Amino acid sequence: MSRLLSANVSRLYRNKYFLICCIYSVCFGMFMSAMNYITTTASGDKPVIDNLFFSFSIFSGILNAVFISLFIGTEYSDGTIRNKISVGHMRRDIYLSSFVVCAIAGIVICLLYLSAALAVGIPLMGFFEAAPELVFATALCMLVASVAFSSVFLLIAMLCQNRAVTAVVNILLVFTLLFAAIYIRARLNEPETITQQTIATSDDGITNVTEESLANPNYLEGTKRDVYEFLNDFLPTGQCVQFTNMEAGRLPLLAAYSAGISVGFAGIGMYAFRKKDIK
Fold this sequence. Notes:
By secondary structure, the chain is mainly alpha-helical. It contains ten helices and two strands, in the order αααααααββααα. Helix 2 packs antiparallel against helix 3 and helix 3 (about 55-75) packs parallel to helix 6 (about 130-160). The mean pLDDT is about 85.
């Protein structure tokens, strides 16, 4: 296991796809902080580093999907995984070492973004207005969510030997989950009541406007709302949408969900990989 980890880590830091993702995350962090300062200052408001500081959490899932698909797909196309099995490495160890390395890659990519955003944002806008504990907890949960993304995409990558198919499936999956999270968030944000205006014009030309509060038919209640709230907290993309503006109210619960997803998908993946016929 240690030799597999060492070999995978060595290969990771020489992998061009990983380097491209790292460069992108650094540039994105610098760009977001600079644009936050420029646009806020131009509007006459006080620039605050808190605004959209964790917006990269949404993109981390997309980068993970692309990187893992190409990284693991290259191992299949080069025959690396087949060679590891032929020399006596256990499939469980092969899967676990791949999971650890992919998780490390996702964490490093996120940390590079955070470092770049801080390096540009703090000199321009100062430190966070939010409590340091909230900022640290949100950053930590963002890293745990990145590991959850890695576990899901690795499962698909390890079971599909075609790199192109793996990339397509993982990218479609992350965008589907992202759109689902945005839809769920929008439904949860529906107000309980809506205001209806009635405009009436009398015979003498006087216009009267009356307002009436009505129950919003799109407002979620009862069990349906509980299900939507659970999915909003459980899905890694739902968590990332909440991280964007540091709006997550139950960070320990979100971290627990992400950890559960990571362990669950890793277990399923190891079991399925043991049964897979490697061509």
